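Narrative of accomplishments. A recurring question from our advisory board has been how the design workflow behaves on a single, concrete structure rather than in aggregate. To address it, we present the structure tokens for one chain from the evaluation set, followed by the sequence designed for it. No filtering or post-editing was applied between the two.
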């Protein structure tokens, strides 16, 4: 058996930056350090941060003092204002790519556009971007959710950073078909595109594809969907213990990729367990 890893896989710059910021914060501060929601969508990483004394809270109402960390997905500007009004020290670990999407939504709103956010309704990143987009914001996941726009409507489009290029293109095409030419900011993260393209390429070359990362991670889930469309024997796992020998019967080539919120250590752990599994079979 041969194990191959995708050319681009695992933790992106934004995730590494967020982890570095919170680790530095706990080292230099004796005050409580809390993240507003999970710092990243990776349960094992969040548990590791808790062991360092960094707790997760769901609302700033749960925090009276100390540092509140804005997670990599970002938040609405009203939340940051409220945190500052409480006297909390705000550490903004928003991914720079997400910050660009927020800025694009804010600029479109300032110019009087109705902002269409292409993304998953209820996802924290999408909620944060929407907070910059004004009262007329629309969140859509597919073209069927778009309303009928007047031909003179001023429509602006931004995307959740982990969306696929095809998803964004389909929304734009549908708006165009209504006779409306939208103002589009392509805010899909380049690292996301790299991982999606590399994962799809590898999935087409192997018998079994493994996708490592949190099940609550939208970008990891999307990688799984893309890989499964090419390689039906695609499995999404969080931990090495989830590997099942039955997945690899008659398989010669095994591919591995990982979501942007998956640290290198977790990928290596899966690879090590996989090699061990093959050794036992021999």
């Amino acid at each position: 058996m041969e194990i191959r890893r995708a050319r681009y896989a695992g933790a992106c710059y934004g995730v590494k930056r967020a982890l570095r910021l919170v680790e530095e914060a706990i080292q230099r501060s004796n005050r409580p350090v809390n993240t507003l929601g999970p710092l990243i969508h990776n349960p094992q990483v969040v548990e590791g941060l808790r062991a360092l004394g960094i707790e997760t809270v769901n609302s700033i109402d749960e925090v009276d003092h100390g540092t509140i960390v804005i997670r990599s997905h970002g938040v609405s500007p009203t939340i940051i204002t409220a945190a500052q009004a409480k006297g909390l020290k705000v550490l903004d670990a928003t991914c720079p790519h997400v910050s660009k999407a927020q800025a694009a939504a804010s600029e479109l709103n300032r110019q009087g556009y109705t902002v269409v956010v292409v993304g998953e309704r209820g996802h924290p990143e999408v909620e944060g971007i929407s907070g910059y987009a004004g009262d007329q914001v629309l969140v859509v996941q597919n073209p069927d959710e778009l309303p009928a726009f007047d031909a003179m409507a001023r429509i602006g489009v931004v995307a959740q950073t982990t969306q696929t290029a095809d998803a964004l293109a389909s929304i734009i095409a549908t708006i165009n078909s209504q006779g409306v030419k939208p103002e589009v900011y392509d805010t899909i993260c380049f690292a996301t595109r790299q991982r999606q393209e590399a994962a799809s390429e590898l999935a087409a070359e192997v018998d079994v594809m493994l996708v490592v990362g949190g099940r609550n991670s939208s970008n990891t889930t999307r990688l799984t969907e893309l890989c499964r469309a090419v390689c039906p024997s695609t499995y999404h796992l969080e931990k090495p213990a989830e590997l099942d020998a039955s997945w690899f019967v008659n398989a010669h080539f095994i591919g591995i990729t990982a979501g942007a919120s998956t640290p290198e250590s977790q990928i290596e752990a899966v690879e090590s367990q996989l090699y061990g599994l093959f050794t036992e079979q021999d």
